[in-house]
Design a protein that fits this description.
35% helix; eight-stranded parallel β-sheet; 22 helices
């Protein structure tokens, strides 16, 4: 028997059988961090007795037994892992239970999938998930291999009486399996957590080291975080103001980097926040903030209940809100301190509205602000109009003649500190998706015009065409405080762990790059991308693929209009709807898994699903080798956006970027549905539905098929 931090107990089977049950129980308790609940201790005692009986009845079984093996990405432990004859058995016990629940089957299947996808010494082995409801009277009589050809057996269910029989059946069916590595228990573990999973780990443990792909050489999140922390520290030591621009391919972990920097800077290795050292993670993405906040709050309440403590969900939400905020809330706090109305186009703090706080002056409490999706900050025109009317509904503070863009005002806010400050801008290339989003060029202009003494640290990739229309070099030409840092670019997609080249493929597809087909051929086996013209076929493919608690959903652009004939509705606006769509399980019709409500780019940017269906409507069409853009008039026809004015050109850019966002939301695979349209004519010879003519869709379908995307 050895002591290993990955589990609470492990030994070879012979050693386990020789060990007294009380000793095994004592080891579990000793290695457990904290005080185990009475129910947990009683469950351990039962599991030890059962496994001794099972293995004593199987003298032929040789291998290892492991209790409470850590699955960091899921924040859980497998009750028992057996490594026998090259086969990995994952055993999940429900002590005293006589029923089989779908959620319990999903739980043990999640363990198997996690080991298969992220645990290096498990990826080539047969994995057998087994759910054991101890008082269940039946057992699985037909053992079947998963249809996904990934060497995972469909979950077995049994009571305590038939565990040995189920294991024997597997051992007889699968002979001559290669031996499991003797270091299996300390195997490299390289998961790609969803942003929700990563946020949970950060919030609870102040670190995501255990659940991210830090072991993969190509993944640069660690180097990026280390560099940012160094820049923050240099700013503090030298009493400087600094701004960093972090770029990355879609799904590369920009949000994860931002969250980790915020937590590291705030806690600095302590259990409590460091005094006057704090950082705040800010986003203008309402659905993202709402989903993260609710996920963390729900998780916190559940953990409290598991410990026997009471906690209200409202209190948990309030606590989470200190670390994760909407930019608008942060902005409004600073607006309340300025002289109003603004005179001569100059912002000033009004001493009657603010208290000067020592070295921080009139600035915000936090030294460090992380702005996610910085390219989506508002233009001066949009922000000034918003503040002039007092918000969307005219019920907020009115500030006429506001002189700055949102980027300039956010820098101004941190600049009010009299000691030091740092801003981290997380930038998605080609992801401006809404009217009034300024793009990254506005941040550069603000620095040049208003804050020339700030130190600027920039990713070299920021000079490429998808950022500020390729004008960054020109904009920074006269700035004497610019440092280029390679480690400020995240080049590897963490979202699509099966296809690190997904973003390159999507870029090629949207830009008609001749190499798009080659990239597709490289990734199609590990990351399936399929094409269909039938929505029911797409839904069936999604339902057939998703396993355990994996999530799936339908996506459309906000300009899409003719989806109702296909049985699809748009997810209603409002952050609470996004929360249900992303977080509720498959028993809830509001969940994305029901494939009834489709989310738009506004609702999914920054978040992800395991499998997606992109419903490609007639708003963006491939015609003669070019994209043409159309907006529906709401009732009778599509009108082309021709790019004759600056506003129209911006609209075309936003519509293209919407598809870029939606094509990069899936972690494991996606299907694209390009409808056939309606080719029927009425008795008079006129089109039955002139808003869905086949010609509106056929060009796009032909183009996608020409790349080689397989149709089903």
């Amino acid at each position: 028997m050895s002591n290993n931090p990955r589990c609470l107990y492990n030994d070879n089977i012979e050693g386990f059988l020789a060990e007294d049950s009380t000793s095994v129980f004592g080891i579990l308790c000793d290695h457990y961090h904290g005080d185990a609940l009475t129910t947990t201790r009683e469950a351990w005692k039962s599991e030890i007795r059962i496994m001794k009986d099972v293995l004593a009845d199987m003298p032929e079984a040789k291998g290892q037994i492991i209790f409470e093996y850590d699955i960091p990405r899921l924040g859980k432990r497998v009750d028992v892992v057996l490594l026998i004859n090259g086969i990995i058995f994952c055993l999940e016990f429900k002590v005293g239970e006589s029923r089989i629940l779908e959620a319990d089957i999903d739980q043990v299947l999640d363990y198997a999938l996690d080991l298969k996808n992220f645990h290096k010494f498990s990826e080539d082995h047969l994995i057998v998930p087994v759910l054991i409801a101890t008082d269940y009277s039946k057992y699985t009589t037909e053992i079947q291999m998963s249809v996904y050809d990934d060497r995972i057996v469909n979950p077995l269910v049994t009571g305590r009486e038939h565990i040995a029989g189920e294991i024997r059946s597997i051992l007889k069916m699968y002979l001559n399996e290669p031996p499991v590595d003797c270091n299996w228990i300390i195997s490299p573990y390289a998961p790609t957590p969803t942003i929700v999973e990563a946020a949970r780990a950060l919030y609870e443990n102040h670190s995501v080291e255990d659940i991210t792909r830090h072991e993969a050489d190509k993944v640069s999140t660690d180097r990026t975080i280390r560099l940012i922390m160094e820049i923050i520290n240099d700013s503090k030591v030298n009493r400087r103001k600094s701004i960093c621009f972090v770029t990355g391919v879609p799904g590369a972990g920009k949000t994860l980097v931002g969250l980790e920097v915020a937590i590291r800077q705030t806690y600095q290795g302590r259990s409590e926040p460091a005094a006057d050292e704090g950082a705040v993670y800010l986003s203008g993405n309402g659905p993202l903030v709402a989903v993260l906040t609710e996920a963390l709050a729900r998780d916190n309440v559940k953990k409290c209940r598991d410990k026997g403590e009471k906690k209200k969900i409202t209190d948990a939400r309030r606590e989470v809100g200190k670390s994760i905020q909407m930019i608008h809330r942060y902005r409004d706090n600073m607006l309340a301190k300025i002289r109003n109305p603004v005179e001569n186009g100059v912002l000033e703090i009004d001493p009657e509205k603010a208290v000067r706080a020592g070295a921080s002056g009139y600035g915000e409490v936090e030294h460090v602000a992380i702005f996610d999706e910085a390219q989506r900050s508002w233009t001066h025109k949009r922000l000034a109009a918003y503040l002039k009317r007092g918000g969307t509904y005219g019920n907020k503070l009115k500030v006429p003649n506001f002189p700055m863009s949102e980027a300039a005002f956010l820098i101004w806010s941190l600049d009010q500190r009299e000691d030091w400050a740092a801003i981290i801008c997380l930038v998605g290339g080609g992801q401006e998706i809404n009217t009034g989003e300024a793009g990254i060029g506005e941040w550069i202009r603000a620095l040049n015009e208003h804050f020339p003494c700030w130190d600027v640290y920039i990713s070299p990739k920021l000079t490429e065409p998808e950022y500020a229309e390729g004008q960054v070099n020109l904009l920074l030409k006269e700035n004497k405080h610019v440092t280029y840092e390679e480690d400020l670019h995240l080049s590897v997609s963490l979202r699509s762990f099966r296809a690190e080249k997904l973003s390159a493929f999507v870029h090629g597809l949207l830009s008609f790059d001749e190499h798009a087909a080659d990239i597709y051929n490289e990734i199609k086996d590990r990351y399936p991308i399929l094409l269909t013209r039938d929505m029911d076929t797409a839904k069936k493919w999604l339902h057939d693929r998703v396993r355990g608690t994996e999530r799936t959903g339908v996506l459309v652009t906000k300009e899409a209009a003719r989806y109702k004939p296909l049985g699809i509705h748009i997810l209603k606006s409002g952050d609470e709807n996004s929360v249900h769509w992303f977080l509720d399980d498959k028993s809830n019709t509001l969940s994305s898994n029901y494939l009834e409500d489709a989310a738009t780019e506004i609702q999914v940017q920054g978040l992800e699903l395991d499998y997606t269906c992109l419903l490609w409507d007639a708003d963006m069409r491939c015609e003669n080798g070019e994209w043409h853009f159309y907006r529906f008039n709401g009732s009778t026809k599509w009108n082309e956006v021709r790019g004759e004015t600056e506003n129209q050109r911006d609209q075309m850019k936003y519509m293209l970027n919407a598809y870029r966002v939606l094509l990069t939301r899936a972690r494991i695979g996606m299907i694209i549905c390009v409808p056939e349209g309606n080719s029927n004519r009425n008795a008079s010879g006129f089109w039955e539905d002139s808003t869905r003519l086949p010609a509106y869709y056929d060009g796009t379908y032909s183009y996608l098929k020409s790349i080689g995307i397989r149709e089903i």
